[in-house]
Model the fold of this input.
Amino acid sequence: MPGHLMIDEDRGLRRRTVQRIVLAQFGLAGLLGAGFWVFGGGRAGYSALIGGLISAIASWVFARFVFAGAQGSSERFLRRVMLGELLKLGVVVIMFGVALTALNLAFLPLISAFAVTLLTYWVVLLFA
Done:
């Protein structure tokens, strides 16, 4: 069926776009960690790295969840996207909870790197 083929091609494009987003987030987390380390010291660099990784790991979990069950109808795919966003939010809350209570992190580099890494999503979509 031609319509079914088009849906599969669209899913392939979405999968590649999400992979680019996640890879960009992991790369940016490392760059931000290094930058904060150079300009703010070890604690700032480690905090920024953790903040960026929180965003990148949450996006990776989202992508794994959504595309693991991508076969089926568009409605099923949309349902997995919505559930994936809830899962992603839960991962972010848990990882921030651990980061803020168990690790000796500087808050400003942590939250700054998280926010910048999160914005990567929109920048990559502009060039997709």
Notes: Confidence is low (pLDDT under 50) at residues 1-6. Residues 2-126 form one domain. The helical segments are 2-40, 42-68, 74-102, 107-126. Residues 43 and 105 are 7 Å apart (CA to CA).
